[in-house]
Amino acid sequence: MQIERRFQPWTWRVRLRHLDGWRGLVASFLAGMLAVLALAPYHIWPVWIVSLAVLLWRLDGARRGPKPLRGGFVTGLVFGMGYFLAGTFWVGFAFINRGPEFAALVPIALPLFAAMLAVFWGIAGAIYARFAQNTEWRVLSFAAIFALTEWLRSHIFSGLPWNLPAYTWSAGGAVSQSASWLGVYGLSFLTLLMFAAPAMLATRGLGPRRLLPALSGFALLCVLFFAGGLRLLSTTVPDVQDVRLRIAHSNITQAEKWGDDGEHVARDRYMSLTRQPGLDEVTHVLWPEGALPIYMLEDGQTLSRLGAALNDGPALIAGINRRARAGEEVVYHNSLAAMRFQGGELSVDALYDKVLLVPFGETIPMASLISAIGFDEFARLQFTPGPRAIVAEIPGLPPMMPLICYEAIFPHFWQSSSQRPEWFFNLSNDAWFGDTSGPRQHLVQSRYRSIEAGIPLVRSASRGFSGVVDPLGRMPVMIGPDQEGAFDVTLPRALAPTPYSLYGDLLFWLMVLGVFAGLAVQKLRFIKKQKTSQP
Question: In the chain, count of helices (H) and strands (E)?
Answer without folding.
Answer: 20, 11
